Amino acid sequence: MIKTGIVGAAGYTGGELIRLLVHHPQVSLEWIHSNSQQGKPVVAVHPDLIGDSELVFTNQIDTKGLDLVFLCLPHGEARPFLEQHPFGQETVVIDLSTDFRDESEGFVYGLPEVNASRIKQAKRIANPGCFATGIQLALAPAVKEGWCAGPLHVTGITGSTGAGKKLSPTTHFSERTQNVSVYKLFTHQHLKEINQTFGQLDSDFHGQVFFVPYRGNFARGIWVTAYFPYSGTEEAALEAYVHFYRQAAFTHVTQQDLDLKQVVNTNKCLVHLKKEAGQLVIYSAIDNLLKGASGQAVQNMNLAFGLDEKLGLQLKSVAF
Ligand SMILES: NC(=O)c1ccc[n+]([C@@H]2O[C@H](COP(=O)([O-])OP(=O)(O)OC[C@H]3O[C@@H](n4cnc5c(N)ncnc54)[C@H](OP(=O)(O)O)[C@@H]3O)[C@@H](O)[C@H]2O)c1
What we know:
This protein has helices at residues 12-21, 42-45, 78-84, 112-121, 130-144, 173-176, 191-201, 234-244, 290-304; strands spanning 2-7, 27-33, 57-58, 68-71, 92-95, 108-109, 124-126, 152-158, 181-182, 209-215, 222-229, 251-253, 269-276, 279-286. With 320 residues, it is of the alpha/beta class.
């Protein structure tokens, strides 16, 4: 059994990890950390876990004797946390924040569709961002083919859980419901990791990603639309995409009509493409808390520990 701890377990991604790991056949959850909830049973914070776990939150970090720790901390908090709590190389660290996605300090960028062989050897894994996952999986095959020399136009809409558990004016029900808004126009922090991967897939990649992020009025899920001028046929594009994802455990190319609920509550990314008006248009859909965060983190854990990539992740969609 993989002895595991979760830091930031009272938050959204931490809670989602608990939900996945209490039923994972190869994981023993040793502790769940929270400063604000220490001493409380897990169900005091995640009431849906009644009957599934008797764990109690602790504010103590035991850096010894663990095989794996997940860090579910806000951006900028993971690096100082690891400085204060140095885990030995025998402990695999999977960080869900942006802090190490530049692959500094020995971290490997944890996008399995691109880096599976490196993740399998890694002791430090930087889990991708949620928008970054949706956008990279929409465009990676096209970038690899060298089709993305010019500007890439991308929109993405996210559910409110993407902003974390802490209440803010833009996650407040009154302002979020029946509403849509744009934020961080062309400047979203995930562009850095997206460009890093695209440069890895095509060393000549100089295309610019113009990304318009939207806040959606739903709780879970990310929908991405990307397009660029494309002179080939739709069939050729489809063939390249299917080939690129031929070994992907969770990313599927589908020519069925796509909607968000097909992926909500699953670790899947569904990709749909079509050619219109000289443009290749690609849609991708993920659950921001699963393939966009905690599900992908468990997928990375499975790879790093030599397990079946799908273990503990064969989940049922909401569908309708
Ligand atoms: N939400 C998503 O869809 C999503 C997707 C991809 C990546 N991410 C990334 O995953 C990370 C966690 O996101 P989240 O949505 O789970 O956030 P969240 O709901 O706000 O939870 C973060 C948790 O971190 C703990 N925390 C904050 N500062 C801390 C510190 N200095 N030391 C120890 N614990 C601290 C807090 O717990 P206590 O106050 O109880 O200690 C809090 O519950 C972020 O970096 C986020 O960007 C999130």
